[in-house]
Sequence to fold (406 residues):
Amino acid sequence: MGWATSHPPDPAGVATCIQCGLCLPSCPTFRLTGREDQSPRGRLTAMAAVADGAELDDTVAHILDTCLGCRACEAACPSMVPYGELIEAARVETAAVSGSRVRRSLLSNVLPSKGLLGTASLAARVAQGLGSWVVPGSLRTGFEGLRPLAGRPDRFKGGTWEPEGEAVATVGLLTGCVMDEWFRTVHEATVAVLVAAGYRVVAPEEQTCCGALSAHDGDRDTALDLAERNAPVFEGFDFIVSNSAGCGAHLEGYGHLVDGGESVADRSLDVNELVARSIADGRLPAFEGAELVAMQDPCHLRHAQRVVDEPRAVVRAAGYEPVEIDPAGICCGAAGTYSILHPGTSEELGRRKADQVRSSKAAIVASANPGCELQLRAHLAGDARVAHPVELYAESLSASGYRPGR
Ligand code: SF4
Ligand code: SF4
Fold:
């Protein structure tokens, strides 16, 4: 009995949990159910039990698989339990024994593939044309989220963009898979703002999916393969910038995955960090304004990367008034493939997040992660515009006619 593979959760990491329970109020699945086995402490207890020889049966797999991987517990933990690493390792184990392996494998293989993702986009457009009544229930929310994107033109293309004058540094832009295909405008805004700030921006054509979703879904081999392909592609850049919180958090974990990954992790930044830094340095202007923007913190930005102030600084400099909607930063329920694998929990969390946005009276909600954006679009159903903070800043920059150095 015990774990099924040779890469189980690190027992030393599991042992750092002192069972204090301080993380419980931060955990979305505990808040929804009130059940210990749906809490971080309960999941760590389950990991310790399996390490001690308990069977990794369907009940234990369910306890571990229903975790959103939001890492809110990690941010709340006084004992610095490395929960994100532990649950990722546990997912490799549950994928090895549970019946969801085929479904996970499908997801892990579709997302890194531009061709297959293009087909998925086409499917979304066709489903949109036919009407949501033909779409299976568990996918309906996802297709609703895609609705505003379905008419978008071709995917973002790689390239190099030069600033006016000498570049302050060279940025390698991770264009990703979902972002690349469905959030082209976020990439365009990222390039425009970073070039205006004086950066040379390169989006290498050879890059591939970062592997975050594969890692979250227990497909360690695919995650490793993708990280090994990306690490050399991003050699030589001063910064590696992501505008997707989930990808950025995963890049910061490359050091644990592959040779050369440490270098990727050290240079990895979320775009909000670099833009906020450029505004503070005076290389980008700040605009005045009072329109409200509700701030939605993607878990992998707030809890994993601990980037909280920077998106607010970017939104404020874009000429808006940031509004707090959720001081606890509870997950919106998107969580990568979670919305497909656990639609009930995902729907409830998405509904609650949309209600928080509506209560704020803001006509715009800012989010810096594609999964969260899709979830918000689906649950807000047009009640508020959903935009990346850097998109809002790029719009203000463009409207002002700003030219660097003039
Ligand atoms: S994970 Fe951290 S906060 Fe939660 S019970 Fe263990 S030690 Fe306490
Ligand atoms: S990662 Fe999120 S859902 Fe999972 S145990 Fe921690 S707080 Fe709960």
Observations:
- Residues 112-119, 125-140, 147-151 have pLDDT under 50 and may be disordered.
